[in-house]
């Protein structure tokens, strides 16, 4: 009874708001109107639409038979009167039968009897005076009070009153969330009884569990009905329900089933304009929650008609399938097996290994619940152990505050911009590798979008030029434009939804000098959308991808676009959906999503969460690796990836906030967590909510529109004459457990802190080293007169010293440096700590997580240095630098910076002094330095081709460097490679090819030769740029790996 009362009040809310101008029938069964939330209104509207659609289809069937519509567990639903009053032409010769518990039906009959508007639709309405059984009847309407757990009385009444067993009757049974409350055997008996009639259809609308009872929505729904003492007793999957109907006697190919979310997008069920019209009734933006509701309810249509052949598919020779417009075919047409499951032969069969699975670890208490908030970077690039979460919807209202999460207690709280009110569905975009960021858009209510933009510059929030119009759920990424004299940090945004409901298709770019400018699109143009997700191909690229989002008609776009910002500030876009979906096959629907997020990780770029258009995402596939196009399943406490925020950290991801209102069942909130591949036993949680800071009122300075008129847009944070600020290299505590090969594959440097590398960190004193290695052991040493050694200019000499003399020189602070060589064959053989320094080798060991280094090791040189800088160079082999004593500062540059770092052709070292801040080399303003300071026990992973140099930060430095092969063996040049930096075979062959190309132009005039050689060089540069942007975590890898 409680569920019926709640349901009928909700349907009355829909009737009054969404059926404006039409006859109202729910009003007579609801004593007082109560307006429901937009989510509940839309959910019940869809339920009502589904039932009405099914009944209409049956009523429109051409047949000479009498039609009977029997509503099992009807409650106070006035379904008969909706048709008798609104579509009387369909009801000629039809009879509607309402069936429910006797007490409820007596009340319903009483309402009908005293309501003229209802009596006028039921001529000769007569009450029997019975307490149960047949309670009332008229020409088109019959009311029966009985318990469906005992079918005999109902069967007798229907036969006596309507002669259902006769062959001239076509029957439609309707059950809207009624048999779900019955024990399984009792509801199965109902299905079996209905299947005994010769010409019968069954329309069933109920809940189901598309991803198990532990899905946050499902758990909230089940708990709700348990609390009402009306538990769902036979809830399962759609496949299981179809199997139950087949077992009851309905033909397999006469039984179809779809979730309500699938029906929502079915054009034969619901047209685009009809969906748009709903938005004009009341503002709506609870799309993920609506999708979750629709995904947990299904509509089943089963039929058994005499003379129809159901042995083959398609079985409907004279009319279309009930779900003709649905994109899903695997459920309706799949063979029913013993488990009740079926799958399309085109569905990918994933076999997950331990390396595919991600584990969740909840953050320490306390928790602050909010959803549709956004991440704010720490105001200092050195504060890599803190992150902010701004705005969003809290447990009571929209928030203007900012949470600070950190591993440490003593942190500087992070603040958001001083907004006038709380905001959600906004974007905060970090400007490149700086700590500066830009906030854009957002909303209060769905019809009140914000156009505000705020810049955080040097830790202070300043208002900047508004967006051309307010928008929320737009996509935003940071771009680094290759401008002179310094790269320009900009923000590119696309799409979103405006206050008036318009869905936008414009591209905008922001700079501090010009504000927001519209970007023209050449060629193909992505259609308007909101709630899409976007990411650049690499961290500092000017190209990227756009996936998913929703149209103005409320349909999720299952498309995939690649875009590129050209030098003339126009955008070229290419629709590459076909190549991705061809690989995913029948599972292609998990690509296009609404409300998902892209994020970088040590596994590559991941697409996480949101909702898909054709079915609900599951624990197995809600995380999709965009490089391999394989899902990454999760284990552990399960977050709901809706309204969440993500940040890469510690070899994993921080999942902050998130949750959803689960229809009328309650709200589920995420407990923020870390997502990585460490097992719970080896992961020690340190992250915690440390502070929550309110926004405060804006100062007059903050409220004044800030522009960069006095400097270039490429120089927001510093003058162009100084060196770029280095990016702090990501830190990871190896004790937390990591998958190190993934970092190697990602080709990004990382510092592993506080590693257990053996007793060397304390044992290797000067005295111990001299005693163990031998005082008279001869070693080759670099001796420099300058602080910075230069390999090209050879401003140092090679000297041979006794090891004790060398160590004494280091103690005196002399500029000497030892890079150990092979004791037996220094010119021909790579050095090995175990072979060349056996007395101390057992003091050093790599952590077991770095086993791939040990297994593929090339050499392991011992390095000891005084106050001298290493020259700038790159290594062809990957390597790990393990700091044993002292502190060392390193600067690293990505391979894309090589043309700005002074490398001559064929050389692997440069003469540029990157530590000379007083007299910086002009080309350094175009580079992207990364910085690490190593302490004893720290390990720095240096990927191949990352240009780097080192300087002592404190005391003498002792380190062990382990070089290892991480590329295919055939890629390395054949022959001697003592230092691990011999260029790859392809490069050596390429230089010879260049020489041959140049020689082929020798007989032409110089200006002609120069013309064509320069054109070839430009072509090579474009190829290099394209290859670089599509490398590593680039989504272009999808196409190379697709079969």
From TrEMBL:
Top EC class of this enzyme: transferase
Keywords attached to this entry: Methyltransferase, S-adenosyl-L-methionine, Transferase, tRNA processing
GO molecular function, one term: tRNA methyltransferase activity
Membrane-crossing residue ranges in chain numbering: none
EC number(s) from the headed UniProt entry: 2.1.1.290, 2.3.1.231
Residues of the JmjC domain: 826-979
GO biological process: tRNA methylation; wybutosine biosynthetic process
Region of interest: Disordered: 333-355
InterPro entries the record matches: Cupin_8 (IPR041667), JmjC_dom (IPR003347), Kelch-typ_b-propeller (IPR015915), Ppm1/Ppm2/Tcmp (IPR007213), SAM-dependent_MTases_sf (IPR029063)
Reaction equations catalysed: 7-[(3S)-(3-amino-3-methoxycarbonyl)propyl]wyosine(37) in tRNA(Phe) + S-adenosyl-L-methionine + CO2 = wybutosine(37) in tRNA(Phe) + S-adenosyl-L-homocysteine + 2 H(+); 7-[(3S)-3-amino-3-carboxypropyl]wyosine(37) in tRNA(Phe) + S-adenosyl-L-methionine = 7-[(3S)-(3-amino-3-methoxycarbonyl)propyl]wyosine(37) in tRNA(Phe) + S-adenosyl-L-homocysteine
Family membership: Belongs to the methyltransferase superfamily. LCMT family.
PANTHER family with a match to the protein in the record: TRNA WYBUTOSINE-SYNTHESIZING PROTEIN 4
Name listed for the protein in its UniProt record: tRNA wybutosine-synthesizing protein 4
Naturally occurring in which organism (per UniProt): Dothistroma septosporum (strain NZE10 / CBS 128990) (Red band needle blight fungus)
Top-level taxonomy: Eukaryota, Fungi, Dikarya, Ascomycota, Pezizomycotina
